[in-house]
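Suppose you are handed a protein chain with no further information: no name, no annotation, nothing but its sequence. What can you learn? This example shows the usual starting point.
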Amino acid sequence: MKKLLKIAAYLIGAVILILICVLAFLQLGFPKVDPAPELSIEYSPDRIERGAYLANHVTVCMDCHSTRDFSEFSGPPRPGTLGAGGDRFDHSMGLPGVFFAKNITPHGISDYTDGELFRLITTGVTNDGRPMFPLMPYAYYGKMDPEDIYDIIAYIRSLPAVNSEIPDSEPDFPVSLILRTMPVNASPTKKPASSDQVAYGGYLVNASGCVECHTQVSPQGMILQDVKFSGGRSFPFPDGSIVISSNITQDTETGIGNWTEEMFVGRFTQYADSSYLNPKVAPGEFNTIMPWTMYSGMKEADLRAIYAYLKTIDPIKNEVVKFTSSK
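A reasonable first move is to predict its three-dimensional structure. Written in structure tokens, the prediction is:
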């Protein structure tokens, strides 16, 4: 009996030692990305203007990094909160932890160099070496043209500083360890010429992260690759209502296969019309997290390029019930 207890003790000790070694390996060896590059970006008016367009209407950084007012349709950012952060993502959304969008005004990023911001945006690694949960779509931003990322950095540096202190995100165990293995070095691409409409549209679809919302995910929150763009991802509202993302493949029955280019472009630009008044929405009434009022500022040429790219997406039949009220 004593011999068995002794063997069991050795085994338990060996397991504990292995676990300690694995934890040390993950803590010391990851994230495995290159050091932040040496950058000094010129904050020219042209860069800031282009960055404002990208951050508000294409990559829509301000969607998460502001306080959205869901008492109005599509939750436009509340005045005075642009870039201040605070948006919360937690278990109620099926996520493995509690995550907060950070303050990206000069108040929140003053201790970052341009190179550190570039690495953060494109690899998801902070200036103190912590990995970010991929709610921040750094995997998509890491495929963008560096010049576009420089423009975004110039723009957020120009924002009015907002003094908001945001709590640290708290991923659940063991996700907190798995996160450390996720960041990889960026794979930047040269932005295609706008004359190559399909390639340019694909670039914009990546920059906008369309696939993230318009694709179902696994229980671990990973995109299901075989049903990309076919919709069906659930997003709960605080009142218990649920909105489901639309199928944007070329299926003619459940997707947008019957949409003309003008229908597609008009779906966005209607919210930018001078006569449009964004309606108030009471709890339980139809609403969406799709930031229509932000995407409505996208240039028509860019919307047409996105349409051209989406026309190349294979049709997937997936009927979704877009909204379930809490009432």
